[in-house]
Design a protein that fits this description.
Phosphorylase Kinase, domain 1, 3 domains, 6-stranded antiparallel beta sheet
Amino acid sequence: MPPPTTIPELLDRVSRSGVVPAEKLQGLFDELAELGQPPRTPNEMIERLIEAGLITRFHGEKFAIGKYKGFQLGSYLILDQLGSDGVGQVYLAHHVNMNRLVALKALSPQAYENDPIAKERFYREARAAGTLDHPNIVHVFDLCQDGKLLYLVMEYVDGASLQAIVSQFGPLDVSMAAHYARQVALGLQHAHELKFVHRDIRPANLLVDRGGVVKILDFGLVRSEADETGELTRQAVDRSILGTEDYISPEQAVDSSKVDIRADLYSLGATLYFLLAGQPLFPDCPAGEKMIWQQVKNPTPINKIRPEVPLKLAGVVHKMLRKKPEERYATPQEVFDALTPFIADEVPPPPDPSWIPERSGRVAVGRAAIPNPLSAAIMARPPAAVPNAGGSGSGGPASHVFAPTFSPPPSPPPTPRKKKGGSSSDLRMPPEDVKGTAETGRVSNTPTDRNRGRSNSDESDIETTPDANGDGSPPRKPRRKPRPQPDSYDEDFEPAPRSSANLIVGVLVVALLLALGGIGFLLMK
């Protein structure tokens, strides 16, 4: 759709997007007109909407080029695009009913329709992250499916990655770098105890929040040591090595399917080296030779780059970077203990507020609803760095905003049967009063859901398959429960009323039997 050319056209599209109610749009426009500051162009109106906190910069960029569909996914309103990885996009979203910020990692159908490994890896990431429960690991709340689109609902971290912080502000203080690395070791110890190997520890996958808490994210390459076959990893290795060149261990560069937790410790050592030096292990190495250098060359000693690094701390770093796994620390707990002497006091929150830019508008409102935003969780970045979405597409409502294509909205569910002694209005609830399906038999539509033309049902928002029965059929009706006594009924079961035709037939049969009985009695006399 072409960009809007008039303000009424823009406001109509914003209203149809479901991002802002129509009355709020008109109210803002009228208020600006009363103040003698009416916007004159669509772009000026977009800026006013952003300043008023009604839309985000991400929304404004889409509206400006004529895209207004696909901002809603289940119960979530997409606010921003946080980044992307090899298989999907990561979005900042607002849970409409719970007023909570989350991160959504979406796997588009294009990423897995011709690549079953990508889909299985996505499921494996969900299973692994769902098993892990630790303050230094980003939590995964749910795995959902909307049509062909799969997405993970994750904790939102109001912070920044260590990669972004060092790249922008330079190497970290020695004590702070050791403190952050020690937190990562604590999270890896928890994963190790559950027999998981991350296989992609690097600064970009480590987030620090406003309270100084470091969290590990992106378990897309995770390996479970309990899975002896490793078939999925071996299939993937046939095409490429799993890991990141600057932080991959020597043995992982050869065979990613057989590595253990010591590979993660090598990557953690390379990460700590980066935090202290401000550069990777081999900054001058040609891109195509990094895998080889990781196996045969040693990096420049860290205390030669940073003389203030204590010799014993340098020894800890380079022990993690030994080429042979058996020469490194055996567990993350050993790394944690080795780093402890270099942390005199508890490191305070990031010293420079500019490390983690403040968010404004709708994002700030959502963050204020979080009880403890310092420990809430995924990567936040400056609003100006919003990546530009590509392609308009026509596969579904989401294709006008970002790559994943949503399926058409399903038809609304049938109206529940009216109970005796009541009316169908007894089943309705106001949008803000969302009750469980066990109490009402359905979940009422929220204003966001009505804008999409679909119900906020458990099947579409929670299940990983589109239907609850598993076979594409509509939900089955309740069945009569076994009766323990002849005259006892389940009070929750309401039998369907008999039709009038059946009632008439029954009356005629009874009358005929009575007539025959009377005739027989007369003949006997």
